[in-house]
Write a structure and sequence with these properties.
By secondary structure, the chain is α+β, with helices and mostly antiparallel strands. The protein has one domain (10-110): 2-Layer Sandwich (HIT family, subunit A), CATH 3.30.428.10. It is 26% helix and 21% strand. The chain has a five-stranded antiparallel sheet, with helices on one face. Helix 2 (55-61) crosses helix 3. The structure holds adenosine monophosphate and zinc ion. Residues 6, 9, 11-12, 51, 103 line the site of zinc ion. Zinc ion binds next to helix 1.
């Protein structure tokens, strides 16, 4: 069924608690955790607990969860105190754009000048 956990998906395993992550925020529908290979002083990933291959697919199937993903990204930025200095939200869609994990996620990047492509 659409949205069901996928056995080979790393982020589904993080949602299930089968792989550890440094979780910074969690709601009934989303989890935010630190990127294992940070590209900025703040580099957090916000993911839906349901599995969709990318953010666009999530937005079509579950628009309210897609909106919550963005709201949570904003809350992460507030928690990390990077709202005033500015932060970047990145959705990589497709391998050609650098997507390596095919479970929807948004990167929250900040804490240094954001004037180049990063992830
Ligand atoms: P993307 O390239 O947009 O698919 O982003 C995937 C991100 O997941 C990369 O920035 C990786 O560093 C990050 N990542 C991979 N494995 C883990 C993990 N076990 N815990 C946290 N972040 C991870
Ligand atoms: Zn998944």
């Amino acid at each position: 069924m659409a949205g069901e956990p996928q056995p080979d998906c790393l982020f589904c395993k993080i949602v299930a608690g089968e792989i550890p992550a440094t979780v910074v925020r969690e709601t009934e529908r989303t989890v935010a955790f630190r990127d294992i290979s940070p590209k900025a002083p703040t580099h957090v990933l916000v993911i839906p607990k349901v599995h969709y291959p990318n953010a666009a697919a999530l937005a079509v199937a579950e628009p309210r969860i897609a909106a919550e993903l963005l709201a949570e990204a904003g809350e992460v930025a507030a928690d990390e105190k990077i709202v005033e200095s500015g932060y970047r939200l990145i959705f990589n869609n497709g391998a050609g754009a650098g997507q390596t994990i095919f479970h929807a996620h948004v990167h929250v990047l900040g804490g240094k000048p954001m004037n180049e492509n990063m992830v």
